[in-house]
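Hey, does this match?
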Amino acid sequence: MNTAATPYGFDLQSESIHDKIASRNLANGSDTDADMLEQLANHQDFYVRRAVATHFNTPVTALAKLGNDVEEQIRFYLAANPNTPVEVLEKLAFNESDDVRSQVAGNANTSVKVLEELTADSYVETLRQLVENPMIPANCLQKIANKMLDIAEKTVLSSLEAAVLRGISVNAKTPAEILEKICAIKNQNNYYWLLSLGVAQNPQTPDYLLGKLANHDDYDVRLAVAKNSNTPSFVLEKLAADKEYSIRQTATNKI
């Protein structure tokens, strides 16, 4: 064994480890400036680049550079960063990674044009992120809802598909006709009561639909109607006679 070579190899390894630790600390530091983050975006260490991709101080030039990173996880975090430039998000919207596209769908900085294009995505998590994005327009909600409702008519929804409809049910931009169709789902295996609960909680649910939900057989749905700030007095009066005390009390206190 060549003992003379051992200390030399160890020193090189130690130097490399110390560099990585120092660089990771810098990349994660809240006070690290844009110039340093620009340099760190080129670092060989995956964890350094990942931290740069999520940092709020990272300049747009560095974020744009990371859009071409070979590591999927770095592109994933980049797609979720609210500071990522629109043009980078537009490119990532067509990434081969399902998870990367889903993060673009949930990013409030993503353009409406890209959100509309992503409504055709086959990855259900992308659709869930879309319906929960505050920037999504009503026409996109309607398109996704029709797709999920069609599935609900033919088969049992997966938990993720039901989560998409749940997100639509509570979204204030969802058209009334879609809310009504969601409430019409009666299949016990299709989370029908949970979806109706979302509609009952929606501040934009129309009066006539809240009136229907006041007769729902599920306690939580009727209680949500009683708590909804938009529930009209004639519905509250109906709920004031509900068989459940807490619902009667909630409705009575709002009349």
Residues 1-14 have pLDDT under 50 and may be disordered. The domain at 38-136 is CATH 1.25.10.10 (Leucine-rich Repeat Variant). The chain has 17 helices and no strands.
